Automatic annotation (TrEMBL):
Gene: scyA
Organism: Halotia branconii CENA392
Domain Thiamine pyrophosphate enzyme central: 252-382
PANTHER family named in the record: ACETOLACTATE SYNTHASE CATALYTIC SUBUNIT, MITOCHONDRIAL (PTHR18968:SF13), THIAMINE PYROPHOSPHATE ENZYMES (PTHR18968)
Domain Thiamine pyrophosphate enzyme TPP-binding: 440-583
An example Gene Ontology CC term for this record: acetolactate synthase complex
Lineage: Bacteria, Bacillati, Cyanobacteriota, Cyanophyceae, Nostocales
Stated name of the protein: Scytonemin biosynthesis protein ScyA
Region entry Disordered, spans: 26-52, 595-622
Listed Gene3D superfamilies: 3.40.50.970, TPP-binding domain
Gene Ontology BP terms: isoleucine biosynthetic process; L-valine biosynthetic process
GO molecular function: acetolactate synthase activity; flavin adenine dinucleotide binding; magnesium ion binding; thiamine pyrophosphate binding
InterPro entries: DHS-like_NAD/FAD-binding_dom, THDP-binding, Thiamin_PyroP_enz_cen_dom, Thiamin_PyroP_enz_TPP-bd_dom, TPP_enz, TPP_enzyme_TPP-bd
Annotated family: Belongs to the TPP enzyme family.
Compositionally biased tracts (Basic and acidic residues): 26-37
SUPFAM superfamilies hit by this protein: DHS-like NAD/FAD-binding domain (SSF52467), Thiamin diphosphate-binding fold (THDP-binding) (SSF52518)
């Protein structure tokens, strides 16, 4: 069945089922040509030249592709493009720094399932956005960078913020490669139809897609007399497994006890994963990014692996080892596995991913049966072919256990992080539908280890890039895209590095920041101590974040008593404006990141056994 969408000009055809952004792609277009002619209509204010420019045509093209939000920082070199975006159907959010804008665009994509745009001016505008774009590629987001560059006649003449091969490397910045799946410099309006075609086809496919359209300043204002958008019939093209792969999977997985290792790439297949687990009795574990895809309160869930993970997973692998593990949509990289040999079962892995280069890389020595397929499609086929007479064995599985730390009315200062997490669980996770994001560092490990989500798409962390400031600024994109609350659990170092509080105030975005204020880069501080390395300084001056937030126009409250936590969280949820909670935490409570320290030691970082904790504090044991 196909669905036809009307838009600015020629129809875009898609075959169902499809992503939500494609479902409404051309509904975002404006200025339908009532004459039926295949001509672009201008996005210009009344009373101006009706002939559109390349900038206008680009904005319209982006709207036709389903873009509804653009995040960035303006500048003279891209003034025309900025104006065109601002006068289009796309909502434009002007940030204070391009890195924060890029992180917000990434999280807006994951919150909405629609492609997003990052816009920057020439020179430093582009380079400032690169960390966020790096995260977009690593996280699997669909984002398009639209930037300005120096016009051809002025290249090599020391233009202001010159952006050309004289000042920046062309390879990788303006060409396809490790950073961009597709990149091009637009020198003429005649290129736009083919660019539209390439982008539309790429955005319709599963997986992430990061593009860069760079438009010279003079080209932005050049006029477009006539342009024809191509008609496209775009199937979803879910990658289906062949029958031999399904038959082999059944053979390997039905030979004995098996486990399911769920990754972020399996987020669209939550129901199928649950069905397979309950049909077979398999134990289920998840990567940090996959928390909630399989309900964390399910009796077959044994915990999170990797950074901030649970010792219960390691207990399972030691005491009830599976014969084989079905890996779904995770690269099994260091944040997910620490490459621990204890996670390799006797008969290895059945590893399913849409990227054929993923299976067998993290554990190159392990036996791996690789299946290139869409996870949901694969599981549907596997369930169809699973032996009907196969009844699951009921086993008592280990589960994540957390020490219950009671409130102590005599405690005045500081707050124990475990108690803060318990309050967040009760008020935010269980008491609202807000998306929760955790910053890298100890915020990541505390949140991943202690919070429990019963459903998918409520928790977001960045594991590949792990850039400080991702959640601090990404929370704006998530809240804006879902038109609702989003909560960022962040460290004081990240909050000082890159925040967009004033941007949230400007656009009335209901973001909430919970700042773990310990006056340290505490993952570094604690890690150095555990590894026996001395002399390095990871402290910082004590900062009053509540005062800073109020100074920018947000509401804020400082918390130093554990008994005040729930009231502060409830106040933040009830507010209809940006809200910051500055929580002064105990810096000496050891975060559950022992696996990270063991991984560093294995990679050659000097370790002092005498200073290594005797008891494991997270997966896998130290």
């Amino acid at each position: 069945m196909s669905k036809k969408y009307t838009g600015s000009n020629s129809p875009l055809m898609v075959t169902e089922p499809h992503s939500k952004y494609v479902e409404s792609a051309l509904d975002e277009s404006r200025q339908l040509d009532k004459s039926g002619k295949n001509e672009i209509q201008p996005f210009l204010p009344d009373g101006t030249d009706p002939t559109p420019s390349v900038a206008d045509a680009t904005a319209q093209m982006l709207a036709k592709l389903g873009v509804s939000s653009a995040f960035g920082v303006a500048g003279g070199a891209m003034a025309s493009l900025w104006g065109a975006l601002s006068n289009s159907s796309i909502e434009v959010l002007n940030f204070r720094h391009e890195t924060g804008a890029a992180f917000a665009a990434v999280e807006a994509y994951f919150a909405s399932d629609r492609p997003t745009v990052i816009f920057t001016t020439a020179g430093p505008g582009i380079t400032n956005s690169l960390t966020g774009l790096f995260a977009a590629r690593g996280e699997g987001a669909k984002v398009i960078l639209v930037s300005a560059c120096t016009s051809a006649p002025n290249r090599g003449r020391w233009a202001i913020q010159e952006t050309s091969s004289y000042t920046l490397p062309s390879g990788g910045m303006f060409t396809s490669g490790a950073l961009f799946n597709y990149a091009i410099t637009i020198e003429s309006a005649a290129q736009l139809p083919q660019i539209f075609r390439k982008l539309a086809l790429a955005l319709a496919q599963p997986g992430g897609f990061v593009a860069h359209l760079s438009i010279p300043t003079s080209v932005q204002t050049s006029l477009v007399e006539d342009i024809s958008w191509p008609q496209l019939d775009i199937p979803r093209n879910a990658i289906a497994p062949n029958q031999q792969a399904i038959a082999k999977s059944v053979e390997l997985l039905s030979a004995g006890r098996f486990a399911i290792w769920v990754g972020f790439g399996a987020r669209e297949a939550a129901e199928e994963i649950r069905q397979l687990a309950e049909k077979t009795g398999a134990a289920v574990m998840s990567s940090p990014r996959a928390k909630g895809i399989f309900p964390e309160d399910h009796p077959q869930y044994i915990g999170v692996t990797g950074l901030g993970g649970h010792a219960s997973v390691f207990t399972y692998m030691q005491e009830q080892p599976p014969l084989c593990t079905l890996v779904l949509g995770t690269r099994l990289g260091e944040p997910t596995s620490f490459w621990s040999p204890a996670m390799v079962p006797p008969r290895g892995f059945v590893h399913v991913d849409i990227d054929p280069e993923v299976p067998g890389v993290a554990y190159s020595h392990a036996e791996t049966f690789a299946v290139r397929a869409d996870i949901k499609t694969y599981l549907q086929e596997l369930l169809k072919h699973w032996p009907e007479n196969d009844s699951p064995s009921i086993e008592t599985l280990p589960h994540p256990e957390h020490e219950v730390i009671p409130l102590d009315l005599d405690i005045d200062y500081p707050v124990r992080p475990e108690v803060l997490m318990a309050a967040i669980q009760k008020v935010i996770v269980e008491g609202s539908n807000a998306v929760v994001m955790a910053e890298c560092g100890n915020s990541f490990t505390w949140s991943t280890h202690f919070l429990k989500f019963p459903q998918a798409n409520r928790y977001r962390v960045s594991t590949g890039v792990g850039a400080m400031g991702h959640a601090v600024t990404g929370v704006l994109g998530a809240a804006q895209a879902r038109n609702g609350k989003a909560v960022a659990i962040v460290g004081d170092g990240a909050m000082l590095m890159n925040n967009e509080i004033s941007t949230a105030v400007k656009y009335k975005i209901p973001a909430i920041w919970i700042v773990l204020n310990d006056a340290r880069y505490n993952m570094c501080h604690q890690g150095m101590k555990i590894l026996g390395l001395t002399g390095a300084d990871a402290t910082m001056p004590v900062t009053n974040f509540a005062m800073i937030a109020r100074g920018m126009g947000a509401e804020a409250i400082a918390v130093v008593r554990e008994t005040d936590l729930e009231a502060a969280l409830e106040q933040a949820l009830a507010a209809n404006v940006p809200f910051l909670i500055d929580v002064v935490i105990d810096p000496d409570r050891l975060a559950p990141s022992g696996g990270r320290n063991k991984s560093l030691a294995a990679q050659g970082v000097k370790s002092s056994p005498a200073k290594t904790p005797a008891k494991a504090v997270s997966f896998p044991s130290v």
